[in-house]
Give the backbone structure.
Amino acid sequence: MSTGLKGRCLCGGVRYACSGPLSQVARCYCVQCRKASGGECATNAMVARGTFRILSGGDLLREFESSPGQMRVFCGQCGSPVYKRYANDPEAIRIRTGLLDDPIDEMPQLQVFVSRLPFTIVDASDPELRARRRPSGQTLVAFVLAPFVTADQPKSRRALEPSGRNRASR
């Protein structure tokens, strides 16, 4: 398990450290987590409250009670969700793994509210997908779209043309 972790919000105003191990790495697809993260899910890891400390920007933190007893703590400057805590579990908090400075080795052990997700998830444990790297000189747009573009989609194929700029919007 990862220990000695540091993280920060998008603007860098809030910085934190966690000396204890992560546990219960989970991806949550509930509506609240999707809205709070702005993505298809939120990936959280539980840490003991005593192992977590705010290094800077504590005055920037804001709280929102998204449901009874569940507090979401975020940076009031950039809006990054930093962690959440539950009134019925005062000894633990759940940090957002996307704010960690370095990637963690732990794969999510749990996925919850998957039925709430309106589209299919790519299986990141597939070795072929995990090994995929962007070739030198290929645009990011071309790399991301290549698996989804076929010969019968000529308009989409234009996004893959090397032109020095993103042509996906044409």
User: Anything to note?
Assistant: Residues 5-116 form a domain with the Metal Binding Protein, Guanine Nucleotide Exchange Factor; Chain A fold (CATH 2.170.150.70). Residues 11 and 78 are 6 Å apart (CA to CA).
